[in-house]
Automatic annotation (TrEMBL):
Coiled coil: none annotated. Signal peptide: none annotated. The keyword Cytoplasm does not apply. GO terms for molecular function: oxidoreductase activity. Residues 6-348 form the FAD dependent oxidoreductase domain. It comes from candidate division WOR-3 bacterium 4484_100. SUPFAM superfamilies: FAD-linked reductases, C-terminal domain, FAD/NAD(P)-binding domain. Keywords: Oxidoreductase. This is FAD dependent oxidoreductase domain-containing protein. GO terms for cellular component: cytoplasm.
Length: 374
């Protein structure tokens, strides 16, 4: 093993690993550095939902392409990919309007999404509480995959030509004449490459500030829980966007229910504490939507970070330092978008063809927009 590669990636989450995978597929020797273990960041804390229902052309397109990439990966190695759908519930006329408008755009782009009435919803999720329910948006080709297996599949590919280093924190970049040339680890080793990719997730802002790049990404704490396994009772991720709503699905591999809600107000910062409020509230909210869940046991809770951008879209761009790239700000959908973001990043880094306009993901964009399905 020598200390020179074609590209160095900092961060062993879905974004770093997917980018490394696609760079490796293009014949590059990649070194990936993770300060802890692979999936130690947000990726190992996510609930594994993958959907294509978004509100802008670009996000819908990236998500649809990502779904294809998950399918391709499943053909290489089992990642527990399962298309059980996503069902967004509407309890107000405004939500119905929003979903119907988005469905028109999503269908125009080829997504198999439809508006479903209450009767159809009770067929998709038998036993769902219909009180106040007016309809929903349902896409059967959405689904789930196992984040640990996806990262493992990507890491295996990187190791074919390059290496994955864990327990090695990158503490410094070597920059000469406006170009990145190397990285330094916390035990003072230097590794060299003409390309360095910063995919440090919630740490991306802090890490980038040391070399004068300020990125508008802010970590937020989000909590999750999982229940004991039970017999299969429903297929889709159920999403209730009401202020006291939540989202959850049943894991394909073992029948556990896994879910989260977005706290109001948000909890900014890097804290990974778990709260009793969430434990109690989440159980109550899930059972309100699906009363059959009332007596099942919660076996674990945890928390992780969303890396938020002001408009809810990722950042995927080069920087003013030649050879240095930044990919992050994945908000609550980094796992589902990760495969296609990795593929696009590999094209951007190698100067390959980018199949569609990704300027809305640029670092210097106007962040005034707003992803509605976030
Ligand atoms: C509770 C919860 C549920 C979620 N559910 C979903 C979901 O269902 N679907 C979905 O698509 N998304 C979901 N997300 C969001 C998703 O997890 C993130 O968007 C995604 O994992 C971001 O991936 P990443 O690779 O950018 O960051 P991370 O996974 O955080 O990876 C960054 C890595 O960089 C490492 N690192 C940082 N600094 C350094 C350094 N200096 N040197 C070396 N390594 C370093 C970190 O240790 C970390 O492992 C959820 C998130 C949470 C918290």
């Amino acid at each position: 093993m020598n200390n020179t590669a074609d590209a160095i990636i900092i961060g062993g989450g879905i974004i770093g690993c997917a980018t490394g995978y696609y760079l490796t597929k293009k014949g590059l020797k990649v070194y990936l550095f993770e300060k802890d273990y692979l999936t130690a960041g947000s990726t190992g804390r996510c609930i594994g939902g993958i959907r294509q229902q978004f509100s802008t052309e670009l996000s819908i397109r990236v998500a649809m392409e990502s779904m294809k990439r998950f399918k391709e990966l499943q053909a290489e190695q089992d990642i527990e990919f399962y298309q059980g759908g996503y069902l967004f519930l509407a309890h107000s006329k405004e939500k119905i309007e929003t979903y119907k408008k988005l469905i028109t755009l999503q269908r125009k782009l080829g997504l198999d999404v439809e508006f479903v009435d209450v009767k159809q919803i009770t067929e998709i999720v038998p036993g769902i509480n219909t009180e106040g329910l007016l309809g929903g948006a349902y896409c059967p080709s959405d689904g789930q995959a196992n984040p640990f297996l996806v990262v493992d599949a990507y890491a295996r590919e990187i190791k074919k030509h390059g290496a994955v280093f864990t327990q090695k924190e990158i503490i410094k970049l070597g920059i000469e004449n406006g170009k990145v040339v190397s990285v330094k680890t916390d035990n003072n080793e230097n590794f060299y490459a003409p390309v360095v990719v910063n995919t440090t997730g919630p740490f991306i802002k802090k890490f980038s500030l040391q070399f004068g790049i300020d990125i508008p990404i802010y970590p937020e704490r989000h909590e999750a829980l999982i229940t004991e396994p039970i017999d299969r009772i429903f297929d889709p991720m159920i999403v209730d966007y009401r202020d006291d709503g939540c989202y959850f699905n049943q894991k394909f591999n073992n029948g556990s229910i896994i879910g989260c809600y977005t706290p109001k107000p948000n909890v900014p910062g890097l804290s990974l504490n778990s709260s009793f409020t969430f434990l109690k509230e989440m159980g109550r909210r899930m059972a309100r939507i699906l009363p059959k869940l009332r007596n099942i046991k919660i076996i674990r809770q945890w928390s992780g970070s969303y890396s938020m951008t002001p408009d809810g879209n990722p950042i995927l761009d080069k920087t003013d330092i030649k050879g240095l790239f930044i990919i992050g700000g994945m908000c609550g959908h980094g796992f589902m978008l990760g495969p296609e973001i990795g593929r696009l990043s590999a094209e951007l880094i190698t100067g390959g063809p980018i199949p569609y306009d990704i300027s809305s993901f640029s670092l210097k964009r106007d962040f005034a927009g707003h992803e509605v399905m976030r």
